[in-house]
């Protein structure tokens, strides 16, 4: 079942329907998958910024997902180096580097392991500028972590912890959906003068392939992208789930004649309320989907804000299609994830409300 | 002639317990019942005396250890095979090569003592009392598995065995906590808290050391140093690779982890140390794993095949025990072959069970989130699909 989802996603992405941003003005492009796009972004950063360093577990040989292949050979072992196995240490160390003004790009091997570093991120990184009255900041810190379900990850290799960090003012949380988006958003995160967490959907590392510019470019943060315009329902997701709702949109058009507006949120914190609300005012219906558990997931924040801003425009209750309120299961994964059928079902019920 | 006799005896008594055949063989072959062996002296840190350098191994114990190690070895190889056939999915961390550690540790403690370890746990699951069936069925995610199919490779539990932990180093403070409970209950039990050379650099381990030493907890910190933390060799990750000294204010010993007798004696020594309320102790087991870190790691990109082959030919734990026992006439080569055959059959049966047992029913998706709550409905992907959570 999971393989079907991946295959469908690959077809969609290769069809080039994923991005509306023009590639014309960005120079020479190359076919890259997501991890190659990340490598390209890191390569550009290290070339442009002499203070940039990349560190984390196993990054020197290229990383467990090959995101840092070739960088150590190109830029030297004092700029791309391994850390011992200590996430709290990695992030704390990164905050220290960033405070002195150097650009720190830390890698946490899986988003599931970010929790020992949670205190450092939430209590130190996020609050540094605020508590020092803008005297100090760790804005040049970017933390990258593979994120989301992968088909066989079970409890500790599949989590999507963006909701935990969304509750923390002071940091930015970004999730790309494709190689082109990933490179642009990662470069923006690195340039951004605030500590950023960049979650990379690990299932798309190889599965997503598209033409990506070789030269650096940036995609603005806190701007959602309307991938497909529509008039009846707004569908919002981020990361891998965007591809699922795109398919749901086409299913809805084909089977129900319903025109869906598909939005990729891209930045979770601070999120683009204007784009989403404008869309809901137009359509009157909203469906949000993510793999993370339902209770307290980021869909709840979007839902709450939208009902505040667009109450009178809503034709049906806002629908959230998310993972179950259980730990991410081992054998039950195909039943746990919010696949296209669950989203389609929810959409249908919303239309017939 | 001897072979025919042995075979005939085995055939006749194959339905009955093994012992009568052994006794017949003993009587006919004039084997001794036990032998004394010299074992490697352990390096000591902050300790005046260490474990003894000689030990007595009885025939019965020797055959038991051999059988256990061979079962673990075969079980891990079967898991490798099942993984490649895609019956087992997800993550699978095999411990073949480290059998002497699990068996030796178990031999040095009582079943009432407690053990907690990391994700490379299949061997310890077996020594702590889980059957091969339950372990393999858990790996394939079936309802006959020890965690009902919900945990998988990294989350297997048994009585007095607290798993099976996926997050590196997280079991350190947990083990110290179990040791606190042991001290509190006053039954002279100890807790073996295992972790690897990679986890030895985690902050939590040092927090656990501090608490254990401060409150004199009966906690044996066991560092299974297999020289590589996933793909990073110990020298590249640790400022000090003397893991037995890392406890600083906690005494430590470094043990040859490929010799089951050495591990047994060291464990007895360490457990006695803790039981006599002297506080925690650190034990570093120098061992080696043949497989890569997990099934997705071929294991040869950061070390040479030559190195693996060297260890296999010179220090394989099963081979070491077998050679010792045969050379000191504690058992015959045929007996070991018989054990091999039985073990193979057991593993094959277990694998058959693991691949044919049904998966847990879908309703169990929401079970066991909380305890003692009235059954509630687990919300999820859709407002109209909910699972019941029973405790």
From TrEMBL, chain A:
It is found in: Mitochondrion matrix. It is an enzyme of class 1 (oxidoreductase). CDD domains: TPP_PYR_E1-PDHc-beta_like. GO terms for biological process: branched-chain amino acid catabolic process; response to nutrient. Keywords: Mitochondrion, Oxidoreductase, Transit peptide. Its EC number is 1.2.4.4. GO terms for cellular component: mitochondrial matrix. It holds the Pfam family Transket_pyr. Residues 32-207 form the Transketolase-like pyrimidine-binding domain. GO terms for molecular function: branched-chain 2-oxo acid dehydrogenase activity. The keyword NAD does not apply. It catalyses: N(6)-[(R)-lipoyl]-L-lysyl-[protein] + 3-methyl-2-oxobutanoate + H(+) = N(6)-[(R)-S(8)-2-methylpropanoyldihydrolipoyl]-L-lysyl-[protein] + CO2. Together with BCKDHA forms the heterotetrameric E1 subunit of the mitochondrial branched-chain alpha-ketoacid dehydrogenase (BCKD) complex. The BCKD complex catalyzes the multi-step oxidative decarboxylation of alpha-ketoacids derived from the branched-chain amino-acids valine, leucine and isoleucine producing CO2 and acyl-CoA which is subsequently utilized to produce energy. The E1 subunit catalyzes the first step with the decarboxylation of the alpha-ketoacid forming an enzyme-product intermediate. Heterotetramer of 2 alpha/BCKDHA and 2 beta chains/BCKDHB that forms the branched-chain alpha-keto acid decarboxylase (E1) component of the BCKD complex. The branched-chain alpha-ketoacid dehydrogenase is a large complex composed of three major building blocks E1, E2 and E3. It is organized around E2, a 24-meric cubic core composed of DBT, to which are associated 6 to 12 copies of E1, and approximately 6 copies of the dehydrogenase E3, a DLD dimer. This is 2-oxoisovalerate dehydrogenase subunit beta, mitochondrial. The gene is BCKDHB.
UniProtKB/TrEMBL annotation, chain B:
GO terms for biological process: glucose metabolic process; pyruvate decarboxylation to acetyl-CoA; tricarboxylic acid cycle. The keyword Magnesium applies. The pyruvate dehydrogenase complex catalyzes the overall conversion of pyruvate to acetyl-CoA and CO(2), and thereby links the glycolytic pathway to the tricarboxylic cycle. Residues 68-362 form the Dehydrogenase E1 component domain. It catalyses: N(6)-[(R)-lipoyl]-L-lysyl-[protein] + pyruvate + H(+) = N(6)-[(R)-S(8)-acetyldihydrolipoyl]-L-lysyl-[protein] + CO2. This is Pyruvate dehydrogenase E1 component subunit alpha. Keywords: Carbohydrate metabolism, Glucose metabolism, Magnesium, Metal-binding, Mitochondrion, Oxidoreductase, Phosphoprotein, Pyruvate, Thiamine pyrophosphate, Transit peptide, Tricarboxylic acid cycle. InterPro entries: DH_E1 (IPR001017), PDH_E1_Alpha_Subunit (IPR050642), Pyrv_DH_E1_asu_subgrp-y (IPR017597), THDP-binding (IPR029061). GO terms for cellular component: mitochondrial matrix. Its cofactor is thiamine diphosphate; Mg(2+). Its EC number is 1.2.4.1. The keyword Transmembrane helix does not apply. It is found in: Mitochondrion matrix. One of its GO terms (molecular function) is pyruvate dehydrogenase (acetyl-transferring) activity.
